[in-house]
C-alpha cells in the first residue's frame, strides 16, 4: 500500500486483540463463545484503589500532571522498587506512562537506531517484535523449548549477539508461557551482557518487563534484572499496575532507569501523549499503599489464579498428545498441541498449525484462545486463565471434547 509508510505496512496488528475482538463480536451476535484470549484479569480493581480514583475526580484532580508523572506517585514507585526489588532510583529516574506498553515502546524508540538488532527470546509477548519494527530495528528471535520450560539457553544468547545487538528484552514472569527466570539464569545472562563489546559502550541494553512480578507461584521468586551486580546502569525496568492490581483500563505503567535514558523517553512522551491520566495516578498511589507486593488484595487474586492454573495443568495433563510446562507466573497456559497437527477434522478440514487449531476450537468448542504463532512458537496455543474457575472448567471440557474428536 503506497499510501502508507513502510513502517506501518510491515507492522502486524496485535493478534490477541484481533481474536478478542472477534470473540466479542460473536458473543454480541448471540454465539456463546467462552473468551480465554485476553490478557486481562477478570477481577474488579480493589475497592480502595477505585475509591482513590473517584476521590480524585470529586476533588477536581482532573488537570494535566507533570509529563513524567506526579512526584507523589514517582516517590511511591521509588519506595516500592527499593523495598520489593532491591533497586535504588530517585524520582527523576522514573517515567510514568499510559500503561507499560507505552513505557516499552518509548524505551525501544529511545534506544534503537535503524538497523539495530533487538534480541527477543521466543515465545515472546506479541508487541516486542512490532515495537522493534516501529523503531526500524530488526527483531532477532532466540528459540526456547517447552522441554526446558521455555528458559533461554545462555549459549544461544551468546551465539546471537553481534555488533548490531542493541537491546535484549526479558519478560519475567513471561507472557505467554508464564516462565519465571531463576536468579541463577539471570546472573548468567548478566555476565554475557557485561562482556559484550558494543553493549559496553552503548549501555543500557536490557529491557526488563516485570509487569507480572506479583503474579507468581511459590516456590518461584522474582528477581529484577537491574538488582544484579553491575546491571543497574544497563537496565531499563518496566512495570505497571494493569495485571497485579486488575487495573488494565486505568492505563498506568512506568519505566525506571538511568536518567539520561528516562529523560529521552520522557521527550518522546511529551510530544505524544503528555503525562498519564491524573485520576489513574492517584489510584496508583493507593495501589502502592496496599503494602508489600500489593498486600491481601493482590494475594487473594494470586491465590485464585494459582487454583485455576493447577486445575488446567492437571486437566490437560490427562489429555493424550499434549505437552505442558507448568507456568510459574502470570495467568496463561502455553500448551503444545502440535501432535494433533496433520489431522482432519470432520466438517472443518485440516488442522495444520496453531492458527487452524484455534479456528477449529472457536468453531467446534466455542472457546477463543490465541495461536502460538502470534508469540513466535507455532507448536503451542495460549489459554488465558483470567476467568472464573467455572468458566475455565466449561472451556476445558469443550476443548477436550473437540481435541478427542480429532484422534
Ligand atoms: N508486557 C506484557 C508482557 C504484557 O502482557 C502486557 C499486557 O498485555 C503489557 C506489557 C502491557 O501492559 P499495560 O496494560 O500496562 O500497557
Automatic annotation (TrEMBL):
- Cofactor(s) for this protein? pyridoxal 5'-phosphate
Entry-linked InterPro entries: Aminotransferase_I/II_large, AspAT/PAT-like, NHTrfase_class1_PyrdxlP-BS, PyrdxlP-dep_Trfase, PyrdxlP-dep_Trfase_major, PyrdxlP-dep_Trfase_small
**According to its UniProt record, in which pathway does this protein act?**
Amino-acid biosynthesis; L-phenylalanine biosynthesis; L-arogenate from prephenate (L-Glu route): step 1/1; Amino-acid biosynthesis; L-phenylalanine biosynthesis; L-arogenate from prephenate (L-Asp route): step 1/1
Task: Tell me which Gene Ontology terms the entry assigns under biological process.
Answer: aromatic amino acid family biosynthetic process, prephenate pathway
Q: Which GO terms describe its molecular function?
A: aspartate-prephenate aminotransferase activity; glutamate-prephenate aminotransferase activity; L-aspartate:2-oxoglutarate aminotransferase activity; pyridoxal phosphate binding
Q: Which SUPFAM superfamilies match?
A: PLP-dependent transferases
Start and end residues of each Aminotransferase class I/classII large domain: 32-391
Keywords, ordered alphabetically: Aminotransferase, Pyridoxal phosphate, Transferase
According to its UniProt record, which protein family does this protein belong to? Belongs to the class-I pyridoxal-phosphate-dependent aminotransferase family.
Task: Please give the name of this protein.
Answer: Bifunctional aspartate aminotransferase and glutamate/aspartate-prephenate aminotransferase
Amino acid at each position: 500500500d503506497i499510501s502508507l509508510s513502510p513502517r506501518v505496512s510491515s507492522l502486524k496488528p496485535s493478534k490477541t486483540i484481533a481474536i478478542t475482538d472477534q470473540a466479542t463480536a460473536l458473543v454480541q451476535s448471540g454465539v456463546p463463545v467462552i473468551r480465554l484470549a485476553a490478557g486481562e484479569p477478570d477481577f474488579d480493581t480493589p475497592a480502595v484503589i477505585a475509591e482513590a480514583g473517584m476521590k480524585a475526580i470529586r476533588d477536581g484532580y482532573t488537570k494535566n500532571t507533570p509529563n513524567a508523572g506526579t512526584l507523589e506517585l514517582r516517590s511511591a514507585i521509588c519506595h516500592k522498587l527499593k523495598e520489593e526489588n532491591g533497586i535504588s532510583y530517585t524520582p527523576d529516574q522514573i517515567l510514568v506512562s499510559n500503561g507499560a506498553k507505552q513505557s516499552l515502546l518509548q524505551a525501544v524508540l529511545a534506544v534503537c537506531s535503524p538497523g539495530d538488532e533487538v534480541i527477543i527470546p521466543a515465545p515472546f509477548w506479541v508487541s516486542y517484535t512490532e515495537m522493534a519494527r516501529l523503531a526500524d530495528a530488526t527483531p532477532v528471535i532466540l528459540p526456547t523449548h517447552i522441554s526446558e520450560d521455555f528458559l533461554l539457553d545462555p549459549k544461544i544468547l551468546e551465539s546471537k549477539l553481534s555488533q548490531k545487538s542493541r537491546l535484549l528484552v526479558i519478560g519475567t514472569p513471561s507472557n505467554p508461557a508464564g516462565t519465571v527466570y531463576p536468579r541463577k539464569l539471570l546472573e548468567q545472562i548478566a555476565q554475557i551482557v557485561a562482556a559484550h563489546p558494543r553493549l559496553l559502550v552503548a549501555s543500557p541494553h536490557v529491557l526488563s518487563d516485570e509487569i507480572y512480578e506479583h503474579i507468581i507461584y511459590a516456590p518461584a521468586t522474582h528477581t529484577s534484572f537491574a538488582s544484579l551486580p553491575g546491571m543497574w546502569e544497563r537496565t531499563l525496568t518496566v512495570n505497571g499496575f494493569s495485571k497485579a492490581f486488575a487495573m488494565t483500563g486505568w492505563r498506568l505503567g512506568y519505566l525506571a532507569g538511568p536518567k539520561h535514558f528516562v529523560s529521552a523517553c520522557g521527550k518522546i512522551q511529551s510530544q505524544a501523549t503528555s503525562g498519564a491520566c491524573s485520576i489513574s495516578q492517584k489510584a496508583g498511589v493507593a495501589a502502592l499503599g496496599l503494602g508489600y507486593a500489593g498486600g491481601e488484595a493482590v494475594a487473594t487474586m494470586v491465590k485464585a489464579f494459582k487454583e485455576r492454573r493447577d486445575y488446567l495443568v492437571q486437566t490437560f495433563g490427562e489429555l493424550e498428545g499434549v505437552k505442558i510446562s507448568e507456568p510459574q507466573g502470570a495467568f496463561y497456559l502455553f500448551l503444545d498441541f502440535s501432535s494433533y497437527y496433520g489431522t482432519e477434522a470432520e466438517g472443518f478440514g485440516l488442522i495444520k498449525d496453531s492458527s487452524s487449531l484455534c479456528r477449529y476450537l472457536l468453531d467446534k468448542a466455542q472457546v477463543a484462545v490465541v495461536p502460538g504463532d502470534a508469540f513466535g512458537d507455532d507448536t503451542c496455543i495460549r489459554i488465558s486463565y483470567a476467568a472464573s474457575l467455572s468458566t475455565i472448567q466449561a472451556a476445558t471440557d469443550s476443548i477436550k471434547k473437540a481435541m478427542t474428536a480429532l484422534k
